[in-house]
Amino acid sequence: MPVPKGSTIDPSRTRAAILETATPVLYERGLDGIGVAELCARLGVSKETLYRHFGTKDGLVQAVLEARSERVTRWLTEAVTAAGQDHADQLTAVFDALQRWYDDPVFRGCAMLNAAAQHHVETVRAITARHLDGYLELLTGIARRAGAADPQALGRQWLMLVEGATVVAAHHDATGAGEHARRAALALLPTTVGPQD
Amino acid sequence: MPVPKGSTIDPSRTRAAILETATPVLYERGLDGIGVAELCARLGVSKETLYRHFGTKDGLVQAVLEARSERVTRWLTEAVTAAGQDHADQLTAVFDALQRWYDDPVFRGCAMLNAAAQHHVETVRAITARHLDGYLELLTGIARRAGAADPQALGRQWLMLVEGATVVAAHHDATGAGEHARRAALALLPTTVGPQD
DNA sequence: CCGAGATCGTACCGATCGGTTCGATCTTGG
DNA sequence: CCAAGATCGAACCGATCGGTACGATCTCGG
Fold first, then answer.
1. C-beta atoms of B160 and A159 within 8 A
2. Which of A168, A183, B50, B127 has its CA 20 to 30 A from that of B31?
3. What is the architecture of the domain spanning B64-188?
4. What confidence tier does A1 reach under pLDDT thresholds 50, 70, 90?
5. pLDDT reported for residue B49
6. Is the pLDDT assigned to residue B105 strictly greater than 50?
7. Do B161 and A164 touch (CB under 8 A)?
C-alpha cells in the first residue's frame, strides 16, 4: 500500500508515489491495456485522488512518460560519464547499459516508442520526439569529442543503432543485440581515433 | 464502395476487398483506435459480413498484418533483385526504397511494430517476430553473397539499421534517414568487396 | 423462376470505458 | 479540539466497446 490512507497530508508525496507505482504498471500493460479503475486498485489509490492530481488519464500518462524519459536519459548519460575519457569506452558503455536493460525480464521495448505507437495524441508523440532528441544529443556529443568529421550525421547513425537494437531486442531476439550494435557503432568511429574492438 | 451490396456472390472476393480496404485504415488509426462499427462503415460492409469472414476483430487484425508483412517483404525483396548483382547496389536499393516509404505522407512507422506495441496478444507478437525474420533473411542473404566473414552477424546489424532508421523516421525526423542508414550499412560491408559510397 | 446464401441495416446485448459525485474517515495546523 | 482538506470506497453517469440477431434485399446456379 504505497499511499497509507490520509496519513501523508503532503499532496506532492502522494503524487510522486502514484507516478512511481504507475510507471511500471503502464509499461507492462500498455497505456490502453489497463483501465483507470484497475489501475487505481493496483496503486492503492482512489479515483478521486488520481483525478485531482492528474486531471485526466492522459495527464497521468504524460507525467509518467516525461518522468521516465528523464530518468532513462539521465541513466544513460551517467553510464557515459562513468566510462571515462575514451570515446570508444563511452560508446561501449552505452550499448552495455542497453544490453543489461534488454536482459531484464520486464523489458518490453522503449516505453516512449510504445506509447507513440498506440496513442495518436500529439502531446505523447512530442514527448517521444524530445526523448529521441535527448539520445541524439548524448550521442552527438560523443561523436564531436571523438573528432568526427560530421558529428551530427554520426550521432544520428548511432541513434539508429540504439533504437534498432532496442526494437530487435524487444520484438525478435535480445541475445547479444547490444553487442552487435556496439560493434557496428564502433566500426563507424573515425579510424584515426582510438583503438577499436 | 468496395463491396457493392450482394453483387459479388464470391465470398473470397469480399474477403479480399475487406482486407485491402481495412489495411490502410487500421494502419492510420491504430488497431484499437477505431471501433468495429466505424470500421465497417468505412469499409462499406456490414458487421455481419465482417464477422462471418474473420470471426473476430483480432482475426481481421491478424489477417491484415500477415498480408501486409508479406507484401512489404516481397516489395523489399523485389527492390533488391532489381538492383543487379553488386552487393553495395543491393544494399543501397533497400535503403532507397525505405526512404521513399518514409517520404510518403501516410508513413507512420512499421505497422507490425506498432501492432506489437499496442496489442499484447501473443499471435500478433508472433507475426511481428516472423516479419523481422523475413527482413533478417533478406539482409543475411546479401551479407553472405558479399562474402562477409559472419553473414548472420552482419545481417543482424543491418536489420538494426533498417529498424532504427524506420523508428527515427517515424518518431523524430524522416529527412535523410534512409541515406544515413545506407551509409552506415555500407561502412559495415567488408572492405575487400566492391566500391563504397 | 425459385431456392440458397451472401449481404445490408439496424436494433440490441452485456461489459467496460473514462470521469464525477458524495458521505465517511483520517491527519494535521492553528 | 476544531476546522481544513486529503483520501477512501462505492455508487453512478453516458458513451463506447466487441459481438449477435433478424428481417429485408439482392444475385446467381440449377
1. no
2. A168
3. Orthogonal Bundle (1.10)
4. very low
5. 96
6. yes
7. yes
